[in-house]
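Notebook p. 47: complex prediction with guanosine-5'-monophosphate.
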Amino acid sequence: MIHYDPENIFAKILRSEIPCKKVYEDDYALAFADIFPKAPLHILVIPKGAYTCFSDFSQRASDPEIVGFFKAVECVTQQTGAHKDGYRLISNKGANAHQEVPHFHVHVLGGKSLGGF
Ligand code: 5GP
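Predicted complex, C-alpha coordinates below:
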Protein backbone atom coordinates (compact mmCIF):
# COMPACT_ATOMS: atom_id res chain seq x y z
CA MET A 1 0.00 0.00 0.00
CA ILE A 2 1.22 3.50 -0.84
CA HIS A 3 1.78 5.67 2.24
CA TYR A 4 -0.70 8.54 2.52
CA ASP A 5 0.54 11.70 4.24
CA PRO A 6 -2.43 13.18 6.18
CA GLU A 7 -0.57 16.51 6.39
CA ASN A 8 -0.62 17.12 2.61
CA ILE A 9 -2.22 20.40 1.56
CA PHE A 10 -5.39 18.87 0.10
CA ALA A 11 -5.99 16.82 3.28
CA LYS A 12 -5.82 20.13 5.16
CA ILE A 13 -8.31 21.68 2.72
CA LEU A 14 -10.65 18.70 3.25
CA ARG A 15 -10.44 19.24 7.03
CA SER A 16 -11.10 23.00 6.49
CA GLU A 17 -7.76 23.78 8.13
CA ILE A 18 -6.86 25.98 5.18
CA PRO A 19 -9.32 27.79 2.90
CA CYS A 20 -10.18 27.12 -0.72
CA LYS A 21 -12.46 28.63 -3.35
CA LYS A 22 -15.01 25.82 -3.38
CA VAL A 23 -17.02 25.25 -6.56
CA TYR A 24 -18.64 21.89 -5.79
CA GLU A 25 -19.00 19.38 -2.96
CA ASP A 26 -20.90 16.15 -2.37
CA ASP A 27 -20.42 12.97 -0.31
CA TYR A 28 -17.57 11.76 -2.51
CA ALA A 29 -15.68 14.78 -3.77
CA LEU A 30 -14.66 18.38 -3.22
CA ALA A 31 -13.82 20.72 -6.10
CA PHE A 32 -12.04 24.05 -5.78
CA ALA A 33 -10.08 26.57 -7.82
CA ASP A 34 -6.36 25.90 -8.34
CA ILE A 35 -4.32 28.52 -6.49
CA PHE A 36 -1.99 28.93 -9.51
CA PRO A 37 -4.38 28.56 -12.48
CA LYS A 38 -2.84 27.40 -15.77
CA ALA A 39 -5.98 28.28 -17.76
CA PRO A 40 -8.93 30.69 -17.31
CA LEU A 41 -10.80 27.74 -15.80
CA HIS A 42 -8.65 25.52 -13.58
CA ILE A 43 -10.51 23.43 -11.03
CA LEU A 44 -9.13 20.62 -8.89
CA VAL A 45 -11.46 17.75 -8.01
CA ILE A 46 -10.40 15.55 -5.10
CA PRO A 47 -12.01 12.50 -3.49
CA LYS A 48 -12.96 12.76 0.17
CA GLY A 49 -11.08 9.55 0.97
CA ALA A 50 -7.33 9.31 1.62
CA TYR A 51 -5.76 8.21 -1.67
CA THR A 52 -2.38 9.33 -2.95
CA CYS A 53 -2.90 9.08 -6.72
CA PHE A 54 -5.03 7.59 -9.49
CA SER A 55 -3.50 4.13 -9.05
CA ASP A 56 -4.06 4.14 -5.29
CA PHE A 57 -7.65 5.36 -5.79
CA SER A 58 -8.39 2.78 -8.50
CA GLN A 59 -6.98 -0.08 -6.43
CA ARG A 60 -8.39 0.73 -2.98
CA ALA A 61 -11.51 2.89 -3.34
CA SER A 62 -14.93 1.24 -3.27
CA ASP A 63 -17.06 1.14 -6.40
CA PRO A 64 -19.45 3.81 -4.98
CA GLU A 65 -16.46 6.07 -4.23
CA ILE A 66 -15.10 5.66 -7.76
CA VAL A 67 -18.46 6.21 -9.45
CA GLY A 68 -19.29 9.09 -7.09
CA PHE A 69 -15.96 10.77 -7.73
CA PHE A 70 -16.18 10.68 -11.53
CA LYS A 71 -19.81 11.81 -11.45
CA ALA A 72 -18.59 14.75 -9.36
CA VAL A 73 -16.00 15.58 -12.04
CA GLU A 74 -18.82 15.62 -14.59
CA CYS A 75 -20.92 17.86 -12.32
CA VAL A 76 -18.01 20.30 -12.19
CA THR A 77 -17.72 20.42 -15.99
CA GLN A 78 -21.46 21.13 -16.21
CA GLN A 79 -21.63 23.61 -13.34
CA THR A 80 -18.67 25.66 -14.58
CA GLY A 81 -19.86 25.65 -18.21
CA ALA A 82 -16.66 23.88 -19.28
CA HIS A 83 -18.63 21.25 -21.17
CA LYS A 84 -19.89 23.84 -23.71
CA ASP A 85 -16.62 24.54 -25.52
CA GLY A 86 -14.62 21.64 -24.13
CA TYR A 87 -12.10 20.96 -21.43
CA ARG A 88 -9.07 18.85 -20.58
CA LEU A 89 -8.77 16.45 -17.63
CA ILE A 90 -5.29 15.76 -16.21
CA SER A 91 -4.20 13.61 -13.30
CA ASN A 92 -0.50 13.55 -12.46
CA LYS A 93 0.96 10.51 -10.73
CA GLY A 94 4.46 10.33 -9.31
CA ALA A 95 7.84 11.74 -10.24
CA ASN A 96 7.65 11.49 -14.04
CA ALA A 97 4.42 13.51 -14.02
CA HIS A 98 5.75 15.94 -11.38
CA GLN A 99 2.86 15.26 -9.02
CA GLU A 100 3.13 18.01 -6.43
CA VAL A 101 0.36 17.16 -3.97
CA PRO A 102 0.11 13.51 -2.84
CA HIS A 103 -3.69 13.35 -2.63
CA PHE A 104 -5.37 12.05 -5.81
CA HIS A 105 -6.82 14.89 -7.87
CA VAL A 106 -8.11 15.61 -11.33
CA HIS A 107 -7.37 18.96 -12.95
CA VAL A 108 -10.25 20.38 -15.02
CA LEU A 109 -8.81 22.90 -17.47
CA GLY A 110 -10.79 25.05 -19.87
CA GLY A 111 -12.08 28.51 -20.62
CA LYS A 112 -9.99 28.91 -23.78
CA SER A 113 -8.46 26.83 -26.56
CA LEU A 114 -5.80 24.76 -24.79
CA GLY A 115 -3.85 23.85 -27.91
CA GLY A 116 -2.84 20.36 -28.94
CA PHE A 117 -1.46 18.01 -26.33
P1 5GP B 1 -0.10 18.31 -9.25
O1 5GP B 1 1.20 18.76 -9.80
O2 5GP B 1 0.06 17.61 -7.92
O3 5GP B 1 -0.93 17.53 -10.24
O4 5GP B 1 -0.96 19.63 -9.02
C1 5GP B 1 -1.14 20.23 -7.78
C2 5GP B 1 -1.87 21.52 -8.00
O5 5GP B 1 -2.26 22.02 -6.73
C3 5GP B 1 -1.05 22.63 -8.67
O6 5GP B 1 -1.69 23.02 -9.88
C4 5GP B 1 -1.02 23.75 -7.64
O7 5GP B 1 -1.14 25.03 -8.23
C5 5GP B 1 -2.20 23.43 -6.75
N1 5GP B 1 -2.05 23.85 -5.37
C6 5GP B 1 -0.96 23.69 -4.58
N2 5GP B 1 -1.18 24.19 -3.35
C7 5GP B 1 -2.47 24.64 -3.35
C8 5GP B 1 -3.28 25.25 -2.37
O8 5GP B 1 -2.89 25.47 -1.21
N3 5GP B 1 -4.55 25.58 -2.73
C9 5GP B 1 -5.02 25.34 -3.99
N4 5GP B 1 -6.28 25.72 -4.25
N5 5GP B 1 -4.27 24.78 -4.95
C10 5GP B 1 -3.01 24.43 -4.63
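Notes: The two ends are 32 Å apart (CA to CA). The chain is about 30% helix and 20% strand.
Next step: compare against the earlier run before touching the bench.
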